[in-house]
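Take a specimen:
=====
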Amino acid sequence: MHNEAQMTLEEIQSLVDHARRYFQDRLYPLQQRMDDEEWWPDEEFRALGEMGFLGLTVPQEYGGQGLGYLAAGMFGEAMAMANPALAFSWTSHDNLCLDALFRNGTEEQRQRFVPKLCSGEYIGGLGMTEPGAGSDALGSMRTTARRNGDHYLLNGGKLYITNGPVADVLIVYAKTAPELGSRGISAFIVEKGMPGFQVAQKLDKMGFRGSPTAELVFEDCVVPAENLISEENRGNAVMMSGLDVERLMSAPLCIGPAQRALDLALDHAKTREQFGQTIGQFQLIQAKLADMFVAIDSARTYLHRGLAMCDDMELTEAGRGEIHKISAAALIAASRAGSFVTDAAVQIFGGSGYMRDTEVNRLYRTSKVLEIAAGTQEIRQVIIAKELLKG
């Protein structure tokens, strides 16, 4: 249970409103350059630590804020409204790396890495996906780790790794007992500068541009044994313990941009004139706006239900049962809402919405990846169906 348990929803909302103003003032103006140049605003990201926006779910004694997942999700949506790409990198840092490391790491690992990840001195990421291992991330994994005295030697590669080019610390999964398949995988803390570790290439994306994505290569990469997370061959459990939270914390990356697209569409509908009146007077436009609102508000309500469930349970319960179903469903709802709303917003803007340099176009290009990342829509549907059929 997090300290958020002592906070009311109104108190959380007050904190989020304060953050929203900061994100709008400091992060929103960075969008255009990030999209045009795939530019990474390193100083602004690290400044999030100084402002207390990193390590939201980490206890205060380790440098975090001691909040719960519901509060963190609300912060994530506010950031994603102002700057989706930076919010994408923030989610990878704060949840996929920092929160996971705190939950699964030893006390020595916590003391060594968590405060610096909370302060912004370190940037974090997750190395899971490979060229031949996407939806079957564990079963098809080819990256290996072999014990060699007081260290491990990692060999292989990872692909589509958010924050890969800029990360100081990455949680990387590798097979330590290939003969055991998905039950022979371990999780490691890999640090920038370790011998045998390099960023092979920075990737050019359709959306979330400016959130740096890379291919990583490990060639006899030397990782000290003390950087093993949990126990050898327990990587499956480490991953599953955080997968539901990862899906729930990814959903704000859909809802924030969708809300921004709706706000832009509303402004356009009130000012754009055709046939002697604003287009907002036409019932077909009104129907689109209404459906956009319903999609966003439904997804947000469902997401908050899932995040509240995470705050009320032990994370050892994750990866199965009701929360497994709800988290998959919440991300389905959010990603569908994101794609639907941004598509409708482009339609309302008409020709100008098709121009690459407009904000609504950027939001439209951003929305698609969340139907693929964090487990595809189809994988989420399989998870939900299996849980339903168990009943």
